[in-house]
């Protein structure tokens, strides 16, 4: 696993983990990488400070840090748990904001849904008190699966 500092077109800087640089480029090319602050998908790698090892006579890193393998396993477990939870959820695509709002006001029967929304739609839903939460792991929309 590798962590990158990323930056969107609105200059929001954030971190994200990827299996490799190629994995980042692949996910970015498919529009799966988005800014957690505004939802923009025009994301690039930000300038990062180089990782320079400490001198041999200085303090060592704590030994209780998780290994890259442990981080990868934890991420895979999180993705599997999210995937299992989504088995009982209906994919509604770009209609997510409208469907969530309709369920909130009682115009539609409540039920688990997931889909896509713009940052503006998300802000509006939150301001209206509609109970929503982002998915922790990006997913590929069903229509994009080969």
List keywords for this structure.
3-stranded antiparallel sheet, alpha+beta, 146 residues, single chain, elongated
Task: Describe the overall structure.
The chain is an alpha+beta fold and 146 residues long. It has 4 helices and 5 strands, in the order E-E-H-E-H-E-H-E-H. The longest helix is centred in the middle third of the chain and has 19 residues, at 68-86. The chain starts with a strand and ends in a 19-residue tail after the last helix.
Short description:
The chain has 146 residues and is of the alpha+beta class.
Architecture blueprint of SSEs:
Layout: E1 2-7, E2 13-18, H1 21-29, E3 44-45, H2 68-86, E4 90-93, H3 96-105, E5 113-115, H4 119-127
Parallel strand pairs: 4-5
Antiparallel strand pairs: 1-2, 1-3
């Amino acid at each position: 696993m590798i962590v990158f500092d990323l930056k969107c077109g609105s200059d929001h800087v954030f971190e994200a983990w990827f299996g490799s640089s190629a994995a980042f480029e692949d996910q970015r090319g498919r529009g799966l990488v988005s800014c957690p602050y505004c939802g923009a998908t025009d994301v690039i790698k930000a300038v990062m400070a180089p990782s320079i090892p400490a001198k041999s006579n200085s303090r060592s890193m704590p030994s209780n840090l998780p290994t890259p393998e442990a981080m990868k396993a934890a991420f895979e477990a999180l993705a599997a748990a999210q995937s299992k939870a989504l088995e009982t959820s209906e994919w509604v695509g770009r209609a997510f904001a409208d469907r969530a709002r309709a369920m909130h006001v009682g115009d539609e029967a409540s039920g688990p849904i997931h889909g896509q929304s713009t940052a503006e739609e998300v802000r509006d839903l939150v301001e209206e008190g509609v109970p929503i939460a982002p998915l922790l792991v990006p997913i590929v929309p069903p229509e994009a699966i080969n």
